[in-house]
Write a structure and sequence with these properties.
Blueprint lengths: L5 E4 L13 H10 L4 E4 L11 E5 L3 E11 L11 E4 L12 H10 L3 E4 L28 E6 H5 L6 H9 L1 H4 L5 H12 L5 E5 L6 E4 L2 E4 L3 H4 L3 E5 L9 H13 L3 E5 L9 E6 L2 E4 L3 E3 L6 E17 L2 E16 L3 E11 L2 E8 L2 E4 L2
Parallel strand pairs: 1-2, 2-4, 6-7, 7-8, 15-20
Antiparallel strand pairs: 1-11, 3-4, 4-5, 5-6, 9-10, 11-12, 12-19, 13-14, 13-16, 16-17, 16-18, 18-19, 18-20
The protein binds zinc ion (ZN) (2 copies).
The site of one zinc ion has 4 residues, from loops.
């Protein structure tokens, strides 16, 4: 089967909420960094009439779509941020009730992802608070935001001195996504739930002033080269906004996607597939163990790296300094892949796949 591959970022803000870059500036940053699509997710507002292809023949094009990040403003701290895509209408009227929100999004043909679910407080900043997901009895959401760059970055800011150092050299600080989020993902998968994982920037383009110095910390352009989501649709983008939007959401819904930390190198071409007696599978798919044996899982990494195959939190196979991993799965369960790479002296997370769901006989 041939899959097309598109790279996108699906969580960012403009002045419609607390971001500082306009839709056009975001599109320009996305074109410069060669993203194929971006989804702008302002807090509790669905911004109409901005969707479309931006750019020109010379610079290239990016598809910009509207989504939304919804939470209950009356709840303190303002926990339970939910990313909503594909509803084509304002959904923040359901903000006060996360389960009703998730249900309503589904009824409107949309997708919902629990954003930065294990967000933490910056310990030395009295006024910062942890914006985690707390209502874990909610069901029916599409998936989790496994790697939110900005939320994750906060975990490296343990002291003011460390913060100053890391804000100027974020690439030295960043290692990988929240361990708690990965553990929760594995626990949900182990319980039999299908959970799609995505990775995003949560870019705001915030201006930062220290005396006469002024700079934008974490510009959109920088963050668009960090944590992104790759999708693998079966057909290419057509150039028609509504069609390509539908293709993006179908592919995401199917979990045919993986997350990459692009600063370590392009992850284009990464594949995680399965082959069994009853057929073949790619990330997001289910595949049955045939009567004659198991399912052969195969990982192809774009460069030599450490490849880990994980089932319900347990590493069941690992290769180091290799581009391939092959494993015969005899046990049912959700299998996912992590690829780690030595970069600037530290082993860092490069790629996170969505699971292949291996069903029993
Ligand atoms: Zn948020
Ligand atoms: Zn956000």
């Amino acid at each position: 089967m041939t899959y097309y591959e598109y790279i996108g970022n699906m969580h960012m803000h403009t002045p419609y909420s607390d971001g500082e870059g306009t839709h056009r500036e975001i599109a320009d940053a996305a074109i410069k960094t060669k993203l194929d699509f971006v989804i702008v997710t302002d807090h509790n507002i669905w911004v109409d009439h901005v969707q479309g292809y931006y750019g020109d023949d010379q610079r290239g094009y990016v598809l910009l779509l509207t989504g939304e990040e919804i939470h209950d403003r009356n709840r303190l701290p303002q926990v339970n941020h939910c990313l909503v895509y594909g509803t084509q209408r304002e959904m923040s009227e359901y903000a006060h009730h996360p389960q009703k929100l998730v249900n309503a999004v589904k009824e409107h043909g949309g997708l919902s992802f629990l954003a930065h679910p294990f967000d933490t407080q910056i310990p030395w900043q009295q006024d910062s608070s942890a914006i985690a997901w707390v209502d874990w009895d909610v069901t029916g959401y599409t998936g989790l935001e496994i790697w939110n760059y900005m939320s994750n970055f906060k975990t490296y800011l343990l002291t003011p001195a460390q913060t100053l150092r890391h804000v100027y050299q974020p690439h030295k600080a960043m290692i990988g996504p929240s361990v708690e989020t990965l553990a929760k993902w594995d626990a949900l998968l182990a319980s039999g739930q299908k959970v799609v994982g995505i990775g995003n920037s949560d870019a705001h383009g915030t201006h930062f002033k220290v005396g006469p110095l002024q700079r934008v910390i974490f510009p959109y352009e920088y963050l668009f080269q960090c944590v992104n989501t790759h999708i693998l649709p079966l057909t290419p983008f057509s150039g028609v906004v509504a069609d390509d939007e539908a293709l993006i959401y179908q592919t995401l819904h199917a979990g045919r996607a993986f997350i990459s930390y692009q600063l370590l190198g392009s992850a284009r071409g990464f594949r995680f597939t399965g082959q069994g007696a009853t057929g073949s599978a790619i990330m997001g798919d289910s595949i049955r163990i045939g009567a004659s044996g198991g399912v052969t899982l195969q990982v192809v990494a774009p460069a030599r790296a450490t490849i880990k195959l994980i089932r319900h939190g347990e590493t069941v196979a690992m290769e180091t300094n290799k581009e391939n991993l092959t494993y015969v799965a005899l046990q049912p369960g959700a299998y996912r892949v992590e690829v780690w790479k030595l970069w600037q002296g530290v082993e860092r997370c490069w790629i996170l796949s969505n699971p292949i769901y291996v069903d029993g006989r």
